[in-house]
């Protein structure tokens, strides 16, 4: 009887309900503020964000470079040979599927839109004092597009991924809650200090807020594209239908779990994306697209340090603040999500495989996407076939996308439908990983090989889908919410730096054990 009572108590304590209620309350309070005082709320957060960036931009810029150096040092040391799960552990997913899940979860839907039009912003307002709308501006446009979706933002995922993996697989602490991990590092085993509770709360708020923005900003683009082609009039109704479709996809995927759900969803996503890109490549100016894509990758790598440190303190052009730091800030919302996903899918992988999959595998997929879509639309611009830059400036991104797709062999109808499906698949995969992270964050303990309860992931799927719909319906400003999330991410950055220091210290203490287990391991 006593054992049965204990078991029931344990079941009741399986989830932390307050970590669901409090973040939702915070988002609701912000939404009300945005609704009641739209101009003041947006102005306040925007001004604060601008002030924040002006004082801390240098730190935003050097953090990815430091993470790249530290991660590569880890990968090439004996620590890089440590196989997560033990020397005999076998990888759960093949390498292509492993990288595919990381790629789809980290890029979301914004990458699809930006792959076609982002270059036009740099073409019209280039860095380094280059003449706008010039050939030189065109040469820098795609490389900067690739840079902003490349190695530096991907390196941010390793801020938490390496400490998470080391704690989970090497130190064998069965938790994937950021606050609990910090608690372990500071010696707070009951995880009940204000520090651990606050960190767990911020962890959930950042994920919920960040992905509410992802859906809230991605769905209108899809809706506007469909409205432009099919003549739909009510944006809210179209957005609701799109949200329901996305919700059904990632809810079903979440319910099936990682191996039967997300891995297969990401595979379908990649196949569809590459089929779409193949049509663009073959039916467009193939030689120009291939040559410019390769040239852009080379220029981006050759000018990597210039791009990564371009704060223009003398010229004060503000290019890095407007673009580079914006993309870094946007990536912070994904740091916690991707870290949890990496832990869950990395069983049987070495740290070296994981690090290079993040630093090279994810950017490589982005470079293909940006190279083909971007170079194709740039060719339309340079040949005089379509003035993409003017359309973006005067009518917006969605109008430019519809116009670009209308010039392809697919035509506006099939092209927009195929493109919309690609965005929906990317959004569904990203939100599937977000629901996993949120379920882990609100579960008391995590066990190796055991995922959170499907019902909990479904609850988070519904929450993530409903929040942007409500905010859109009441007219709340999602850009203001994004500004809030960017500021709220800073505690995670500070916590991540602390965790890196502690993890390095642990690795030195564990050196004798690492020396014993790594020589016998064989890379896959």
Structural overview:
The protein is mainly α and 524 residues long. The chain has a single domain, classed as Amino acid/polyamine transporter I. The chain contains 23 helices and no strands. The longest helix is centred in the first third of the chain and has 39 residues.
Number of domains: 1
CATH T-level topology: Amino acid/polyamine transporter I
Q: Class in CATH? A: Mainly Alpha
Shape category: globular
Question: Which series of helices and strands comes N to C?
Answer: HHHHHHHHHHHHHHHHHHHHHHH
Largest sheet: none
In the CATH hierarchy, the architecture is: Up-down Bundle
Secondary structure tally, helices: 23
- What does the oligomeric state look like here? single chain
Mean pLDDT score, rounded?
Answer: 83
Provide the helix percentage: over 70%
* Parts with pLDDT < 50 across at least 5 consecutive residues: 1-13, 520-524
Rg measurement, Å:
23 Å
Number of strands: 0
What is the CA–CA distance across the termini? 50 Å
- Beta fraction: under 5%
* SSE class: mainly alpha
Describe the structure concisely for a colleague.
The protein has helices spanning 2-12, 18-36, 38-76, 95-107, 110-124, 135-148, 151-156, 158-170, 178-185, 194-230, 235-256, 258-283, 286-302, 304-308, 319-345, 351-383, 388-395, 397-407, 411-441, 454-474, 478-488, 490-509, 511-517.
């Amino acid at each position: 009887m006593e054992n049965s009572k204990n078991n029931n108590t344990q079941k009741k304590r399986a989830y932390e309900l307050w970590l669901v209620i409090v973040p939702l309350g915070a988002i609701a309070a912000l939404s009300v503020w945005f609704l009641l005082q739209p101009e003041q709320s947006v102005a306040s957060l925007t001004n604060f964000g601008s002030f924040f960036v002006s004082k801390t931009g240098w730190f935003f810029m050097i953090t990815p470079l430091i993470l790249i150096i530290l991660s590569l040092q880890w990968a090439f040391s004996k620590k890089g040979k440590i196989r997560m799960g033990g020397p005999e552990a076998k990888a759960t997913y093949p390498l292509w599927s492993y990288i595919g899940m990381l790629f789809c979860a980290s890029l979301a839907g914004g990458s699809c839109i930006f792959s076609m039009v982002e270059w036009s912003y740099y073409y019209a307002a280039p860095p380094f004092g280059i003449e706008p709308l010039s050939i030189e501006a065109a040469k820098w446009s795609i490389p900067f597009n690739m840079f902003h979706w490349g190695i530096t933002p991907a390196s941010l995922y390793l801020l938490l991924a390496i400490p998470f993996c080391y704690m989970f697989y090497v130190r064998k602490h069965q938790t994937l809650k950021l606050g609990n991990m910090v608690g372990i590092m500071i010696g707070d085993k009951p995880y009940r200090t204000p520090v651990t509770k606050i960190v767990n709360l911020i962890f959930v708020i950042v994920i919920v807020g960040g992905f509410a923005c992802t859906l809230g900003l991605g769905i209108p683009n899809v809706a506007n594209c469909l409205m432009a082609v099919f003549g739909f009039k009510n944006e809210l109704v179209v957005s609701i239908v799109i949200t329901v479709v996305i919700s059904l996809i990632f809810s079903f995927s979440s319910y099936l779990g990682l191996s039967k759900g997300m891995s297969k969803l990401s595979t379908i996503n990649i196949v569809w994306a590459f089929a779409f890109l193949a049509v663009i490549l073959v039916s467009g100016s193939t030689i120009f697209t291939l040559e410019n894509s390769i040239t852009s990758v080379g220029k981006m790598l050759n000018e990597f340090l210039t791009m990564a440190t371009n704060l223009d303190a003398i010229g004060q052009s503000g290019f890095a603040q407007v673009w580079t730091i914006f993309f870094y800030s946007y990536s912070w919302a994904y740091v916690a999500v991707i870290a949890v996903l990496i832990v869950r899918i990395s069983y049987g992988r070495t740290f070296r495989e994981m690090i290079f999959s993040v630093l090279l595998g994810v950017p490589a997929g982005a470079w293909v996407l940006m190279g083909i879509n971007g170079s194709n639309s740039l060719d339309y611009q340079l040949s005089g076939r379509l003035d993409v830059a003017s359309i973006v400036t005067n009518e917006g991104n969605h109008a430019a996308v519809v116009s670009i797709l209308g010039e392809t062999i697919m035509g506006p109808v099939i092209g927009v439908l195929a493109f919309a499906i690609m965005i929906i698949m990317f959004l569904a995969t990203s939100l599937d990983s977000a629901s996993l992270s949120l379920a882990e964050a609100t579960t008391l303990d995590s066990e190796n090989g055991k995922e959170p309860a499907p019902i909990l992931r479904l609850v988070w799927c519904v929450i993530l889908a409903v929040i942007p719909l409500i905010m859109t319906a009441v007219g709340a400003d999602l850009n203001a919410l994004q500004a809030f999330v960017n500021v709220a991410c800073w505690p995670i950055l500070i916590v991540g730096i602390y965790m890196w220091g502690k993890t390095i210290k642990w690795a030195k203490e564990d050196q004798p054990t690492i020396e014993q287990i790594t020589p016998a391991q064989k890379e896959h």
